[in-house]
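Same chain as my last thread, 420 residues:
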Amino acid sequence: MSRRRLTGRIAAGTLATGLLLAACGSPGSSSSSPTTAASAASAAGGGSAGASAQAATGEPIKVGVVTSLSGPLQSYGQMYLDAFNVCLDHATNGTGAVNGRPIAVATADDAGDPAKATTAATDYIGQGYQILAGSASSGVALQVAPLAQENQVLFISGPAATDAITGVNKYTFRSGRQTYQDIATAASFVGDLQGKKVTIFAQDSAFGQANVAAASAVFGAEGATVTPLLVPATATDLVPFAKQAADADPDLLFVAWAGTNATQMWEAMGQQGAFDGTTVVTGLDIKPTHTVFAPVADKLSLLAHYFDGATDNEVEQALVAGLTAEGKTQDLFSPDGCNAALMVVRAAQESPDDVDGMITALEGWEFEGPKGTTTIRAEDHAMLQPMFQTKLVDVNGTLTPELVKELAPADTAPAATPFK
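reply #2:
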């Protein structure tokens, strides 16, 4: 898809100058002194940013990003952070400041460990930070959310998909999708589920069980008979389980799989005829994993939160241009980082020193994000957003996602779960 560099920016009120970029701390610890965009821009040849930064002399608005910059979700956390920085620059018209007050961002690596995350978040709160963001892990997000409530600070969770974040408390928001929206997208491949048979093929782990629970709730509510097929996490021979999936002959086979043996699993599925006469749906992951689907790419229906080529609006174009300028590319969780930056700017613009005012500014807010029109539902902070059906096609020897259908936000909206 051809892209063009944008000169237009998101209007963000009366904006001054001086972006303060994220500075990375060691795992579980916060950065003591965020670096400024002036020095980063100079290193990249952007001298004008340095001149602008000097003009922002107001009290900094401090944001603590706690995410996975190492550990099993490192790629997700880095993807989020890269997009956050690009969209913070975009949303402030290249200034990194709101009304003369620079947005100062410090970053801590939680390594996917809830204990490290809560230590970092507590440290930031102790330093007077009123905005926290970034969780890539659901386990981390569920530990930081109560801290936000107890200390009355704004928390914007990142790629963490657990449904439990939605409606957990009024101080907690999310910048990405949730599991329900994934499952609802999967259901869209079948249409009317009344009387249909659905098999959930997953590992017998916390991840697999969570997907079984969500899928059972969504598909079951539509009248389907849902049968879980859980594979022991220690299993090395996957053929018997693939045969069970094929023998079940469901109308929809939903696969929720994570791990290094995914290629082996898909090969076993294909060998046992699991794709014969059955719609097989799974989630599209980040670009480096696309080769995993090679054995069965032409037989899979893929749900997607986002992928390169899914959308092409002004914000997404700016995101792509900014990442490209840094030698990077957009991927699955880039919208989560971008949305978080847009939300931070909105909160800082409307109520820079009062968290209750920030909450009011975000509740019910409809904005244009990288995925399109996005709304933060006021009663539980669910993020209503487009979702996508896609397929992998061979483009010059590379498996590449191709858009099949875009689902409107209302098509995958979870039921409201008002704050307890």
